[in-house]
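Subject: sequence -> structure tokens, single chain

Hey, anyone have a minute? Need the predicted structure for the following. Not urgent.
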Amino acid sequence: MKKIPLFYKYLISYLALLIIPLMLIGLLVYNHYVAILQDEITSNHQRMLEQIQDSFDTEIMELHKISAEIAFKPELTPYQLKQNMYNAVKAKNLFLNYTSANAFIKEVFLYIKDQPYIYSGSSTYPASLFIDTFYRYEDWTFEQFTKDMNTLSRPVLRHSEAITSERLTDDRVLTYMVPLPLNSVSPYGSVIFMIEEQTARKMLQGLHENSDGNTIILDDRGELIVSLRDAAYLDQPGFYQSALQLPSGTSTKQVDGKEYAFSTVRSNEFNWTYITMLPIEQFMERVDEVRTRALLSLGMVLVIGSVLIYALMHVSYHPLRRFLLFAGKQWGESYRNLNDVTHAVHKITEEKQSMGRALIDSRLAVHEHMLVTLITGRVTDPEPFMEKAGEAGIRFTKPWLLVVRLAVRDMESFPGQQQSDMLRGMERLMRDRFECYRVVGLEGPVVNYIVAIDSEEGDWAIEMKAVLGGIRELYGIDITAGAGNRRQDIRQLGKSFIEASTALDFRLLKGYNELILYSDIAMQTNLGYTYPRQAIEAMEVLIRQGDTESLKKAVRGILGTIESSAMPLHMVRCICYDMINCIIKEMYRIKGTLDAGKGPYPDVFSLTKFDTIQELAAVIEVMCERLCADIVQAQAESKSAGQKQEMLVYIQNNYHDQQFSVQNMADRFSISASYLKRQFKEQTGKTITDFLNHYRMEQAKHLLRTTDMKLKDIVQRIGYFDVPSFIRKFKQAFQVTPGEYRKLYGSNEHDSA
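Reply:
Had a minute. Here:
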């Protein structure tokens, strides 16, 4: 090595410094990051499939909600629809609302057992022509349709199948049938939803817009519901069963001699299986592209670096000797090689860096201290303070200042590194639109900013809302901002900080994802509010009665009172804690303890941990629903034995009363009308109205057979208002008029009597 010229020694050294890191990157970092990219692609693919599954399940659950709404619509009850065709025409708009508000649904039909028509938003179809003429299924005859509708006891989805209809834009549909009411032992009808295959396929397109892959949905029996594309392998025997056995997540499998990457997700709601399959070369296309580019980049860096090192060595070597001589003269020492000079320069550099770090740390500390002093309103002499602030890097070029405080939902639950990244991103978005500084020396999880704007009025609030929207979109979080009033005097900035804190506390009423201005809440606060004490006391009564629906309405009513009355924030908190106290008292009365155990009750102590009244209302509704269910169960066990007979006796004793009503009957038994209807239906299999009408008709038949009473007297005797209405209902029930019935049956029985 001593015989090698110094030039080549340094050339070899520099080349080694270039090649060794490149080798390390190629062998370690390169492979590591390629594996990370591959995992990220796999995870993204899986997440997108989970989003498709959530969207599809949500649409199906929405069909259940629509079915429940139809079941509770008075205009769509069997009684109303069979009165006359005019009621069916009136009901059309209700169906049109469902199809126009939900793009997932093409058609909605209502089928009522033992009625000759099928109802929809576009028309009323004769049941005998519905399948054979208007909607001709390839594999669903009218006889099978009638059988399926009359025996339907749970929701059933007919898979994508061929159909011929002038009313549809697609020639294949998915048909979803839901019994009415849902989960009933004896449904009176069903809702039929038609979903065009092309609509379902659009929901499956997200993963394969520019690829040869496919997305399929299988039911719990391994049968195909719908697929994004038709392919030959879908018709292979055993394909769906083998696909159904794939593990959740991502795996590989050969199909028709070609290797595919499969991603699988299973729905917890319906036990369906969502599967995407993508040719492995397309699945790994991005990884291969990154791998190729990385290798090319490493090669280019090696070649270009070697050339530059060689060229720079020629330029730098000759001045090096002169530098050694100069350094020796300047420092009074003899330097025979670069190591001695490098050691001396290194010491000087370390001392300089140490002094620089100390200066930077000191400047940062001064910067933060001055911002805290400014935001807390402890500035006494503005001009000297702003002069020192300018030296610390704090300069305001705009005349108006205000404080903005940002609160992120559950920010303390994020990992430390994620919090740091989030704060940096938020500050970047703020500075893109405002002249502002983040103040970090205050306690608590709230992020504080001092913001400068051009004038007292203007569009700064619109810009601030845009910043909040950008933060939500970037990090997928819920965030609320509270803003104080604007000030020109920096000594008044402490008041703006207090105002911003007060505004931020109003997220209890406003909720998250809002910009709350102190000027707005100051004008909105109403001191003439009404405290909803009677509504809170009514909650206890409704819980003890087991009336879930009325209880939910009461909770929402209290919430509406809070939102509409603009009452002070401290009084809102009092109302919230009164509601919590009501729930805790009733739970202790029923269970004898506040411990929820392993049951479906939320932890009662978690009731006090809420940021918005909407969150509190949601938890209260869950607990109230469970408490009511427990009470109803206890009442049902103690009263079900004799309650049925009491209800039947009441109707038999009061059927002739023209003012007969369910509410009067409910008052007689000291229960709510909705609970009475539900109990009567469960214990007798009929509604109160159906049973009452049936009993009145039977009494009318008896009087027609055994007496010579005038028809008007019979009508009044059984509780009807007018004769024409009675005649129409009698003929609908028995296919003959009362007079014809008396002629057929009355004379013989009357003579024998």
